[in-house]
């Protein structure tokens, strides 16, 4: 493969080049470190990946098996191969950074059957400095027509054992698991992103980009360290049904010499299509509070009755609080009828246009508007998707009329229990990450956009970077969030948020809902607690990226600690630059981010259950500028278990030439705001 690199480099000077049939087709990354070779052997199609000449993936098969038609997996040859280069920079309307460089070399391999149906398709590889993406591209004249994919036989034959962080796929709790840390050969079937570190220090994460009109891919072990794509099935077992020309989602392999390399990668976004919504100035990042944690603690209810949370009076209290402390939104769950039924098991109970009698939608819309705050709508579907699709347009219209610009959706249902009705009214059950749900989420985004509404989906399909194409997809859940600390006894371990950045967060923003200040809530839920220090709760606003961040605790708990609350008030949610400064998977991580439209920087650092003192250079700050560093750190004797509230808040003057020590307690964290001063 390496011998052929010189051939490849020559190819770069022409737009395309033809290769002789069955010669390996090769492409390398712009910096030359990552290479991909595509070959056929005995009529089977393979790709392999190397990093500085060392195998990452051994030859791994490509192809499809189909229902009612021969598979496209045998009798194949490479009939053409073309290389091209691309380098441009594009803008994110909101995000971790303003500008994203999209720099890759591309190899398009045309693969044809020489016998039988004589079909052909393209496999397109894009090789970046931070990894590769590839997808199947079936042209209209490829000879496929109407197909049912029963198996995508894409393999990932990892060349070496590795330490791997993963969650199980196709289990009942969707993506909401504590991450396992095992050897690679011990993984049976995992969701993506799945992230690993080899003994030689190479970091690899497999995921997918631009999942539309297709089923989500999990990795299933076939033998040793060889895995294959396992697509989420439709109700009849067929994985994907398509007709005519199509492209699959990109299969992505991020490759980095250090763990932070994964965190600083833009590969997933680069492989998505540009914004399809046009002017999206109405999509607004921001911070919110809400009628939410009280339900999870059991002191308020979604349904009607004496502790109903979504009352006009209680919502006004939250609006007043939001206005007083500078929050943009107030999430109100339990505003609409349905919660009194067996909502957990039957989403058909929900009416999305009928508020409870003690919730005055119009009055609250006006009350919020007068105070510069917006109500955030909520659509819990409990997975009854037809019931929701029948009502969503009317509900978006009703909410938009009352000033709502953001809706949190929810799909509480066991994996595989998404209910839809077919043309005859029969109930059909789907997976959260199947083809039907990938289409559903797109339908919701497009309908919501007509009403200038943005979406935050819980129990979602996994993120594959579609926020680039639909910038109104602000955030989603898709992992164990803060809510598990309220009732998931024993909740999230201290290492959880030290694993998330390297796994779930590689896919995109998460509505984790940080900022719990009453960490023990001994009266409400004596068997549960939050297993972090207070300072670590603040660090999450910088570490766990989302353009919308909740201050999730009850207002009274913030008013009891206004000094710590100041950081939540100050921290923005939209950034012009983000840099992962240090980190190791599951152990610790530190991010620095610069606020959009401002010269302020913020830093967040957190650790697992181990105390550690990190040290970071402040060379990301502007040179020759003094900054007041407002530091929120664990106290000397802080410990998530025994002394979680011990926190020091201090200020000092720093410059880009300084080094800052980050003393982190067990289960601790640190948050810093850097304000330019004269
Ligand atoms: C699960 C969501 O993750 C949570 O935030 C919400 O409160 C409940 N569903 C009810 O919709
Ligand atoms: Ca959830």
Which fold name fills CATH's third level, the topology of the largest domain?
Answer: Beta-galactosidase, Chain A, domain 5
Give average pLDDT, whole number.
96
What share of the residues does DSSP label as strand, in percent? Answer: 35-45%
- Estimated radius of gyration: 25 Å
Query: Class of the largest domain in CATH?
Result: Mainly Beta
Shape: globular
Largest sheet: 10 strands, antiparallel
CATH architecture grouping of the largest domain? Distorted Sandwich
* Uncertain residue ranges: 1-21
Descriptive account of the structure:
This protein is an alpha+beta fold and 678 residues long. Helix content is 16%, strand content 36%. The protein is globular and about 75 Å long. Mean pLDDT is 96; it is low at 1-21. Bound molecules: 1-deoxynojirimycin and calcium ion.
Main traits of this protein?
TIM Barrel; binds calcium ion; 678 residues; 36% strand; 38 strands; seven-stranded parallel sheet; Beta-galactosidase, Chain A, domain 5
